[in-house]
Write a structure and sequence with these properties.
Elements lengths: L7 H18 L11 H12 E2 L4 H7 L3 E2 L3 E6 L3 H4 L1 H13 L5 E5 L6 H6 L7 E5 L3 H14 L4 E6 L4 H14 L2 E6 L18 E12 L8 E12 L5 E7 L5 E4 L13 H11 L5
Parallel strand pairs: 3-7, 3-8, 4-5, 4-6, 6-7
Antiparallel strand pairs: 1-2, 8-9, 9-10, 10-11
Length: about 280
Amino acid sequence: MQYTAPSPQREKLARLRQELGGRLAGINLPARQTVPPATQTATLVSAVALALGLPLIDAHLGGGLARGAVHEIAGGGCDTELATAPAFFASQILLQHADLRAIWIAATPDLYGPGLQALAVDPSRLLLVESRQDAESLWALEEAARSGAAPLVIGEIDLLDLTASRRLQLAAEDKNCTILLLRRSRLIGKSDKHRQPSAATTRWLITPQLSRSTDTMRPGLGLPCWHLQLWRQRNGPPAAWDITLRQDQHWQQLSPEPQRQTAMAANDDSHASTLRHHGTRAG
């Protein structure tokens, strides 16, 4: 049997293995830590959804608004022009996620910084982009989503067709960016625009309701209330809830009243003024 001398490469590899084994022998590796199943589930849900902070609504959505998707929010009545209720919806998302930074794109630069602070939202978390028309807003929305600069992009849009919404949905999926489209019409009363075909994952309609009095307030006065309607959800049923704004600026779901009265169209202006007072819009 002929003897074959080991090659220099094999000798070097053997020395490295021996040296590495000696080093590892003197290291006490930490024991493997197990994460409780409940914590694992909560972590997974937060990675794929933005919780609204409303337990029953979050449960209906499977944890909250899906990340990496487009969500439409529209107002009703005179608020179709101001979009104060949709802006309030977006501000609550920012309030529930204090570490979330966002890009806000709008053709009308009337977002009110002191009012956002009154709603416990720091304006420094927002990068404001002013556009001149819907075409520029849609372009900016897509570019902001694909850039990966912020996990949340908010845009105020009047006209939106199916093709544009599909492009935004693809951009959101590409970078796992959540896009909120606040439907804002330039003409009062064009409230049917939000019902046109769209590729959005969820579509919401938020309208004002008559305030409900509380024990801590004088008769006839109460906290502002809205009717939040999820009228379209991909792979899920529609639903509706009544919500209010607590004194700590967090929204809360209300229990339904047997004889809940719907706010009349004449009350839309007063509720819009209330929202402007709360600060989502300047004016």
